[in-house]
Design a protein that fits this description.
This protein is mainly α. The protein is built from 7 helices and no strands. Helix 3 runs antiparallel to helix 7, helix 5 crosses helix 6 and helix 6 runs antiparallel to helix 7. The longest helix has 31 residues. It is flat, with a radius of gyration of 21 Å. The two termini are 16 Å apart.
Length: 181
């Protein structure tokens, strides 16, 4: 009866921030130590599947076939919004560091951190996304996020210096964070 998807997406994003921080912190470890650190997430994610099952539950499924009228128009609009979101998100992660390094001459040691504020802003906005959606409404929030994202993309593209581009990426992360969830 209430919105929960944005905060789940926020926890996922902050998991990425934690993973990136671990990767940055372990960059100078010998490969044997790094391999040991890499095994920990593997063990945590596979442990539930290694535990013996208590009992098997059989699902017989519904008795009668149900005809469902699929609302294609809203589904296609949501799909279009998600395609645009992932294009922007992937561009920020894939091309953002290269853009800062090759176009705006950012210091080489800061290139790896170019999208870190993007991730942090995304995670924080997603964590309050449930509250925002309930207060403002999903449609209004999506419209506002899209408008701010357009402004943020303009800031990134027309930035005269790399710090301004990083500020644009930060604004972009906060604004597109409400689109996918």
């Amino acid at each position: 009866g209430r919105v929960i998807l944005p905060s789940f997406h926020g926890a996922w994003t902050l998991g990425g921030v934690i993973g990136a921080a671990i990767a940055l912190g372990s960059a100078n470890l010998p490969w044997e130590s790094a391999a040991a650190v890499a095994l920990l997430p593997l063990l945590v994610t596979t442990a539930p599947f290694l535990a013996p099952a208590d009992s098997a539950v059989e699902d017989s499924g519904p008795d009668d076939a149900t005809v469902v009228d699929v609302p294609w128009h809203p589904i296609m609009l949501i799909g279009a919004a998600l395609v645009v979101f992932y294009m922007v998100d992937t561009a920020a992660f894939t091309w953002g560091p290269a853009y800062l390094e090759h176009v705006l001459d950012a210091p080489h040691e800061l290139i790896a951190l170019a999208v870190f504020p993007y991730l942090v802003a995304s995670g924080l906005v997603r964590l309050v996304g449930d509250w925002l959606t309930e207060r403002v409404g999903a449609v209004s929030l999506l419209r506002a996020g899209a408008l701010v994202a357009v402004v943020a993309l303009a800031v990134v593209v027309f930035a005269p210096t790399w710090p301004i581009a990083v500020a644009g990426f930060t604004l972009l992360g906060g604004s597109v964070a409400v689109v996918a969830p």
